Predict the structure.
Amino acid sequence: MADIFDVVADPTRRDILGVLLDRETSVPESHGEISVGEIVTALGVSQPTVSKHLKVLRESGLVFVREEGQHRYYRLDRGPLERLEDWLIPFVSTDAAADAAALAGVDAAGDASLRQEQRAFASALGKAFADTAHQVTAVVAATKRR
């Protein structure tokens, strides 16, 4: 299964997710379901291309599919996107530093009495966040080049 960042990095897949979200919000009686043909019409992309991207979205858990005869109806599964959002929040929150300090048990200004192991933990955590931020930046840069 592809990494969720790889999945959402593709603009066509993001467009499909947008169509699914639009269906969910604008036609509530549809329960968010939309046929492949309607997605093709909405995007103006070929049916094989849409099907290929829907397969990736399905395998990554971002969409549900319901089969009815030869027809396939897709709808958005918000679960993976919510987990992605939870992961991203510390990086985009303006209060990230204050949140990290609160989790470490100190005020936002810092506390000179931190024990050595707390400092080591904070350092390791900071390095992990920096490495992850670098990976996200690389994905975003790759997406912009496409």
Remarks:
- The chain has two domains: 4-76, 93-145.
- The two ends are 22 Å apart (CA to CA).
